[in-house]
Amino acid sequence: MVAAVWLSFTFHLAVEHERSLSAAVQNTGNLARVFEEHIVRTLMEADRAIVLLRRSYQVNGNFDLASSFAKLTQKGDLIAEIRVIGPDGLVIASATRPISAPVDSSDREYFQVQMNSQSDELFISKPIIGRMSGLRLLQLSRPIRAADGSFEGVVVASIDARYLSNFYESIDVGRDGAIFLAGLDGVVRASAGFKNEVVGGSMLRSQLFNKIKQAGTGSFLTAGNQDGIKRFVSYRVVKAFPLVVYVGQGEQEVLADYSYDRSVYSAVAAGATVLIVIVLGFTVRSRARLNAARDSLQVSEARAWTKSLELEVTLEHMNQGIMMVDADRNIMVMNRRVIDLLGLPEDYFGRQLNLDDVQSRLRAKAELARGPNTREPLASGGLPMEIGTYECSRPNGVTLEIHTMALPEGGVVHTISDVSERKRKAIQIAHMARHDALTNLANRTFLGERVGQALAHMRRGDQGFALFYLDLDRFKAVNDIHGHLAGDALLRSVASRLSLCVREIDMIARLGGDEFAILQAKTDREEDAQALAQRVLDAVGAPYHFDGYQAVIGVSVGIAIAPRDGTNAKGLFQAADAALYRAKSGGGNAYDFFGRVMQPGSVPRKLLSAM
Question: Contact 423/399 with Cβ under 8 angstroms?
C-alpha cells in the first residue's frame, strides 16, 4: 500500500508536469501564430501604402502625400512617416513634416539595397534612429523606377518600433514572459519582457537560430543565457517575410502549479504512509480476517481510480468543450476546453461552480454575442429552454457552436465547438462563387444581381444607371507573342486601372476572356457616362511595362443608359453589346452609346442572354 501511494504520487506528478509543459507549448504556440499574423498584416498594410503612393507618383508625376497618408493611417498609428527619396539620396517629400533643409539618406542601408537591386521587393531594415524624427524606426522600402527601368529613387515607410513593442507589452505572457521579432539576419527588430535591452542586438548564436536551421516552427526550453531566466519558447518563421517571432513564458511560472502540487502530494503521501504504518500496527492480530477485505478494497479502488483517470484523460483531450449542468444549475463536469473556448478565468477549472457564475462572467465581459433566432448562450440547466444547436460569436472573432441535450434525470449537457474555420471557408466559397478568380473582380453572376438591384431602385423612383461593355483591342497579339502568363498579368493590370476610374458605388466585372463590364450607378446623364468612358480609354490605353517588354493595347466601349435604352436586364445587356459592336466596327479604341442613331446595316456582335 505504501508503494502504491508513492507510485500514484509519482505518476500524478509526471502527468501534471507533462500537462504543464503541453499547456505552455500550446499557449506560446498560439501566441506565436497570432503575432505572426499580426506582423504579416502590419507589413502588408505598410507595403500597400508604399505601392499606392509609388503608383500615384509614376502615373501622375506627383502626388498629394498629406491626403494620401491621412487616408492610409486614419485607423491607427502604424506608419510614423512616409518619405520619397530621390536618386541622389536627398529627401524629396515627407508625409508628416515640411522639409526645411536637405536630408541625405544615401548612406542608409535601405537606399543602398534598393539602388543596387534589380528586383521590386519590399526591404525591411534593421532598427535605426530616424534623422528627422529621432525615433527608433523600422524602414520598409521599395524602389521607384522609370519606364526604362532606371533608378529614380525610393519610397520608404517608417514604422515606429514602439508600435510593435506596445502591442507585445499588451499581451499577458506572465511576469517573466518575453516576446521579440527578429530578422533572419539575427538582428532583433522589437521586443518586450526581457530584463535587458535586446533591440538591435544579434541572436544568430542563440538556441533559437540553431532550432530555425532544423525547422521553421517549434518549441524548446531556453538555457536563460539572454537575461538569466529560463523560458519555454515557441517560435515561427514569418511567411513571406525574412522574420521570426519568438514567444516565451518563464519556467517557474509554467511549473508553478506543478511545484505546488508536488509539495501537497508529498505531504499527503507522507501522511498516508504514517497512517498505514499505524493501522498495520493495530491490525497485526487480525491480519487474516482483514486480508480478504483489503484485497476487495484494493480492487475496487484500482477500478475506480482507472475509470476516473480514463474519464479525466478523455475529457482533457477532447477538441470540444463539455459542460454538464444538473437540475439545480450546478456545473457537475467542465473540461479545460470550455475555459479556452469561452474565455473564462483559469481558476474556474476544477472549482465548484453554478451556471449563474458563468453567465454573469460572460455577460460582464460581453464574451458571447447572441445572433438572430438564438436563446441566451448556455441557457438554463433545469428551467424550460430550447433544446438544440445554435451559434454565438466572441469579441475575438471566434464563432462557437453550442449543442444542448437534455438529461433524463434533469439538467442538460452543453457541447461547445469552435466552428470559425468552417464559417471562414463558407464565406470564402461564397466569395469565389461571385468573383473572378484571376482579377478578383465581380463575375457575370454578381453583375447580374447588381443590375437587378439597380433596376428595382429605379422603379421605386431612384435615378437610372449606365451599363458599359468593354472589349480589349490587340489583347490577342500580346497573348500569342508573350504567352498566357503575360496575358493574365495584363488582364490583372487592366482590372487595377479600371478600379481607379470608378466610384465606390460603381461595379467592375470581368465577363470572361478580355471582356469587362462596368455598372455606373445613380446616373442617367449621358455626360457622366461619356466622362467615365474617356477615363477608361485613357487608363487602359496607357503603355504597360512588364519584365523586358512593353505592351500597348486599346479598348472598345459600348454604353446603354437606363431607363432610356431599356427597363429590364436583358434589353440593357443587348443594347450595351450592340453599342460595343458599333464602337468596335469603327476601328476600336472608342466608345459609343446605344441611344445614338445606329449606323445603317449595324448588327449586334452577339446578344447576351438575361443574367
Answer: yes
Q: Of the ranges 46-50, 522-526, 539-543, which one carries the lowest mean pLDDT score?
A: 46-50
Q: Is residue 161 within 8 Å of 79, Cβ to Cβ?
A: no
The pTM assigned to this predicted structure is: 0.42
Instruction: Select the more confidently predicted residue: 61 or 176.
Output: 176
Q: Which three cell numbers stand for residue 255?
A: 511549473
Buried/exposed 403-433: b ≥16 CB within 10 Å, e otherwise = ebeeeeeebbbbbbbbebeebeeeeeeeeee
Contact assessment for residue 115 and residue 151, using Cβ atoms and an 8 Å cutoff = yes
Going by the DSSP 8-state scheme, the letter that residue 328 receives in this structure is: T
- Provide the β-strand partners of residue 557: 470, 591
Report the pLDDT averaged over residues 250-255: 85
- The four Cα atoms 211, 215, 220, 222 give a dihedral, to 10 degrees, of 20
Task: Check residue 289 and give left, alpha or beta (phi > 0: left; psi -120 to 50: alpha).
Answer: alpha
From the CA atom positions of the chain, what is the Rg in Å? 34
Task: Say how many CA atoms lie within 13 Å of 452 toward its Cβ.
Answer: 8
Kindly give, in sequence order, each residue whose CB lies less than 8 Å from that of residue 290, ignoring residues fewer than 6 positions away.
283
Q: Distance between CA atoms of 10 and 23, rounded to whole angstroms?
A: 20
Query: Helix %, strand %, coil % for the chain, to 5?
Result: 40, 25, 35
**For 157-203, what is each residue's pLDDT tens digit?**
888 777 777 777 777 777 888 888 888 888 888 888 787 888 878 88
The 10s digit of each residue's pLDDT in 105-139 is 888 888 999 899 888 889 998 888 877 667 778 88
